[in-house]
Task: inverse folding
């Protein structure tokens, strides 16, 4: 399984969802399953999550004043579908509008609105976590040699150390193999974390 994870390209991001999560989610012994898309929409309504247009504006994007204003980020085909389902362009939920946006580029899996939300959340999670390994909190901080070792860690090393029969892997495990930019190399060339830096000197 590990080999396939690091060598096969993922599918391109699109607006479609697999039938496994649309029809068979948590099916178990029942004759039918749940629909994750419907659950996500209902969760947003239950929790009073602001609408898609509100989040667009909060993320510095132009607030839509008509259906046509959504065309800057959502395809015409999808906007036409939204018109058939929602009475007003203001009613579109974040979980719907956000996932219909064109992706920012090939390095992201989302459009600008969701990317903005992800960025804010990851930043807040990191800077408010006193146990984050780079926080500098003297009571929980790592030593400089320990930090240097932590920064050597990689998913490539993780695959080498924990997968059956994996002896070669690309250094950037989640990037596709490229003969020049990201070639497959022996595991012996992937840096190893030196755990002796945590050895208690007492």
Result:
């Amino acid at each position: 399984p590990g080999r396939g994870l690091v060598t096969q390209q993922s599918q391109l991001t699109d607006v479609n969802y697999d039938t496994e999560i649309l029809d068979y989610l948590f099916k178990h012994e029942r004759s039918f399953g749940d629909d994750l898309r419907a659950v996500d929409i209902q969760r947003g309504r239950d929790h009073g999550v602001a609408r898609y247009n509100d989040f667009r504006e909060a993320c510095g994007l132009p607030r839509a004043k008509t259906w046509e204003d959504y065309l800057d980020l959502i395809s015409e085909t999808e906007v036409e579908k939204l018109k058939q389902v929602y009475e007003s362009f203001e009613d579109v939920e974040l979980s719907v509008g956000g996932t219909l946006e064109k992706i920012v580029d090939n390095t992201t899996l989302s459009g600008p609105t969701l990317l903005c939300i992800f960025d804010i959340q990851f930043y807040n999670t990191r800077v408010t976590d006193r146990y984050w390994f780079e926080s500098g909190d003297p009571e929980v901080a790592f030593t400089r040699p320990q930090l240097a070792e932590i920064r050597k860690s990689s998913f490539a090393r993780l695959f080498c150390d924990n997968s059956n029969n994996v002896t070669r892997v690309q250094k950037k495990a989640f990037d596709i193999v490229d003969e020049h930019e990201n070639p497959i190399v022996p595991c012996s060339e992937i840096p190893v974390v030196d755990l002796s830096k945590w050895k208690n000197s007492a």
